[in-house]
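New to this. Help decode the following:
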Amino acid sequence: MTGTVGAGTLPGGERTIAAVATASGRGALAMVRITGPSTQAIARRLLDPLPTQPRHATRCRVRDADGEMVDDVVATLYAAPHSFTGDDLLEITTHGGSIAPVAVLRAAILAGAVHAEPGEFTRRAVLNGRIDLVQAEAIGDMVAARSGAAQRAALRQLDGGLSRRIAALRTQLLALEALLAYDIDFPEEDDGPVPRERVTAATAAVQQGLETLVATSGQGALVHDGALVVLAGAPNVGKSSLFNALLGEARAIVTEVPGTTRDAIEAVLDLPGYPLRLVDTAGLRETADVVERLGIEASERYLANAQVILACGDSAESLAAVRAAVRADDAAIIAVQTKADLVAERYQQPDLVADSDELSVVAVSAQTGAGLGALLAMIERRLAERHGAVSLDAPALTSARQRAAVAAADGEMRAFAHAWAHGSVPLSIAAIHVRAAADALGELIGAVDVDDVLDVVFRSFCVGK
């Protein structure tokens, strides 16, 4: 199908796309991006004077189809293939606010561009081989990062460390597949069959690499999403005050009325190690109030998924009650004695108090700040005990798509290793598992045709990225 340049398309259906690449609202500057085969033609219609030197910022005036001035801008042209997208790319820095960038975008569309879809600029970069799919996900993670750890992990992934590790494993799988194909197709060659121990060693090496990568899933997810830390306890024991004190700001309403928190309130606490997703929950108690019961059910769902539970009580009785009520197989439970400033003996030593080998009590005061540092240290220690110390230098799986693909490859290799060791199926059938493992990794980095996967990856991107 042949399109027209005026409609933003060329033969083959390639579009020249445009979008505002900065957030809307009041600000000093904004940016409009244009990329595609018609970029330079559109630039000639829009800009006066026309930037002639690639990668050189030029002050220009944007004019509409009638020659009227739209904005006074700075334009930079990146010539293909040396641009982010791999196509000609024009970046126009406009004045900020809600009007100027939209007016420039409108002029670009009237000059022949079409409005970009979410993530379409990054998708072009993938299709043109500038980055792979894992690096594209890292760009999305950079934009969505809510903590320093998540941002640093995304930077490492964008640098290509994880991509190189996956590509190396895929190369090993393809080499193993070639060995098997030779053994299947040419069993009587002069060199004889491929030595069995050679295939066994290659299989073990790939399995070890996959298993090592799978093992990074838990820590990668915690760094990416934050460790879920849920405050639980009876109404009016000081959970919301503790939540606010840990954040350093008033996020939850604190009153003397039991049951004030009727829904879970979540915020991210950015620590040097694991970021924490702090959740203040409705007080755990029996109630006939329909709305409050919904809040308690939400609390129970959070508790079921928590990595750390802070069992809060303001007295020996309330602390014992919440510790008896909270049960978790996968979460670390830390007992927290709240309102320590109101209890003289606790106030004198508001830090850690050993309670048992598996559970400790931390005495805190939201009013004075006493014990808050000790509580955060205890949370970090419990997370490190269960998930290891945070390491942002080593590649790690951070998204569900990555974890699913590597787990699939690992499962296929386990099936092949079993078939190879026991001879349970013909080698030509067993080798299908190796091919499936290689395809799973290829799909992960975009080394195979994966249009559906591209749609999934870029669905959550913002327009202009």
In short: The chain is about 45% helix and 15% strand. The first strand starts at residue 17 and ends at 20. Residues 139-216+397-458 form a domain with the Four Helix Bundle (Hemerythrin (Met), subunit A) fold (CATH 1.20.120.430). The two ends are 27 Å apart (CA to CA).
